[in-house]
Amino acid sequence: DFLGMGGSQGSQSASGDDDPLITEHFGSMADQEDLWLLPARTLIEFHELLPFATLFSRKRLVKWIPESKRSVVMISHQWSATDQPDPKMRQTAVLQQLLHHMASGKVAAGYQEFGERKTPSLEEQRLCLQWDLWYDYCCLPQAEIAKGCSAKLMCQLFHVLELVIVLAPPMLHIDGSIMNLHSHAMRGWCLLEQMAATVLEKPLLAVTGPKSIFGLSSKGWMQTMPHKAKFSISAHQELVKQLTLELLEWKVNSLDGLHGDKEQWLLYTALAQRLRPDSRSLASFWERYQMTPARLKETSSRGFSPLMLACVEGNYSTVQLLLEA
Asked: What is the three-class DSSP state of 195?
């Protein structure tokens, strides 16, 4: 069952039994920082979007603990102003209305598979007001946002979340530009959050209106890595790059260690290598993919050739050597 609802025992992270692969790579939850979340029932009461400090002082936030049976849902959204994500409550009002509609059974996302996960059923979606939400402005001190929240905290969030909702109703930014699903995918943090859902095989749903929610397939980050997208605060670029590499390295380790999907392993190894400045020699290339020069013109079952992998890496020197071979 999705999200540990409807009488199920809950997800591994929610029940305290961490996924061993994620725990090994990202670290024990006991070593992480406090993760504060906003109950969905609190969000639907908002008449204005309140910052972390206000919500914390009013005791409206909850701290995630391993024993929690409540589900963690990330709200991924583009800010519509520089100092406040939604000053006119246009985005938030759409989410509030959608949660009401889902809880009453009037709206539901259609069935879609996301790796080993799937879209929640209608019955499970009706329990949406029991979710605990990660909404950056509400759940993170603004001083932390300004300097770049810690990689450790974000890894913890990625570890425990069960669902990512892209909140992208069409609207205008304060600067007059159009905000929608397309513009959302051009922002660094937004693209990282879409990537996290894909890499960790979490359901990724898009909300474009109070009665519009559907599954979203995100592959754009494979072409433009999140740290190469747009940022309002340039200092965040390096943190997003670090988190991107962490996620890719976890994926490579999980595929190599348990799942045995050679094709996926080849792809994610190449994507991770794109973020590493070292190991650009031809000898290290062959070693990285457990290949030999004799396999230069061979392709895998899904068409991955050594030349294609070098292109995915962005390894121009190796591409040149392979073309000359």
From this structure: helix
DSSP 171: E
Q: Are 195 and 184 in contact (CB under 8 A)?
A: no
Decide: residue 239, CB within 10 A, 0-12 exposed, 13-18 middle, 19+ buried.
buried
Structure tokens at 154: 């974000």
Helix (H) or strand (E) holding 37: strand 36-39
C-alpha span between 245 and 222 (Å, rounded): 12
Backbone φ and ψ of 187, nearest 5° = -95, 140
Which DSSP helix (H) or strand (E) runs through 143?
A: helix 142-147
How much is the CA Rg of the chain, to the nearest whole Å? Answer: 21
Q: Write out pLDDT tens, residues 44-57.
A: 999 999 999 999 99
State how far the Cα of 208 lies from the Cα of 308, in Å rounded to an integer: 36
Which residues neighbour 79 within 8 Å (Cβ) at sequence distance 6 or greater? 85, 86, 232
Cα separation, 3 vs 112, whole angstroms: 15
Which residue carries 């890499």 as its tokens? Answer: 199
Residue 152 has pLDDT above 80, yes or no: no
Whether the Cβ atoms of residue 60 and residue 43 lie closer than 8 Å to each other: no
The closest of 77, 55, 65, 57 to 30, measured between CA atoms, is: 65
* pLDDT, tens digit (0-9, with 9 covering 90-100), for 22-41: 444 444 433 447 899 999 99
Interatomic CA distance for residues 45 and 92, integer angstroms: 11
Cα 98 vs. chain centroid, distance in angstroms? 21
